[in-house]
Amino acid sequence: MEVTLTVNGKQHHISIETDEMLLTTLRKLGYFSVRCGCDTTNCGLCTIWIDGKTVLSCAYPTFRATNHEITTLEGVEVEASKLAACLASEGADQCGYCTTGMMMSALMLKAHDVHPTDDEIKEYLIGNLCRCTGYESQLRGIKKYLEGDLE
């Protein structure tokens, strides 16, 4: 099946399997910030935006993404680097495997609510699993980013 996808403002014409998930397609196209951790929508590593809403790409059929704007972490590189610096300054970058999905959720949070409480941040990040940190360092890093406390 041939499809045309718009990823980070760039059009891609690609041949896909009819049952191919967007996670697989994006990685084929070289968007390696989109990661696979579970294939069951439980970890959040594959989080992207479609038309400005967070989506788990491991469970989103590629053919459904035609005529929609797909955004990966590569497409928000400037803001992502600011958030990454805040996370690193708080020690939240241990293995880093979960970071890209969590960052996509945190960046979307900023777009909707720049002054959330700790509980609102935690609620927004539900579904983004980390096996290394215990989440407190991520919470501090995200708060620092949202408060504009960039070093």
From TrEMBL:
Fetch the InterPro entries from UniProt. 2Fe-2S-bd, 2Fe-2S-bd_dom_sf, 2Fe-2S_ferredoxin-like_sf, 2Fe-2S_ferredoxin-type, Beta-grasp_dom_sf, Diverse_Oxidoreductases
List each copy of the 2Fe-2S ferredoxin-type domain by range. 1-76
**Keywords annotated in UniProt:** 2Fe-2S, Iron, Iron-sulfur, Metal-binding
A GO molecular function annotation here is: metal ion binding
Question: PROSITE patterns of this UniProt entry?
Answer: 2FE2S_FER_2
Q: What is this protein called?
A: (2Fe-2S)-binding protein
Which organism is this protein's natural source?
Veillonella montpellierensis DNF00314
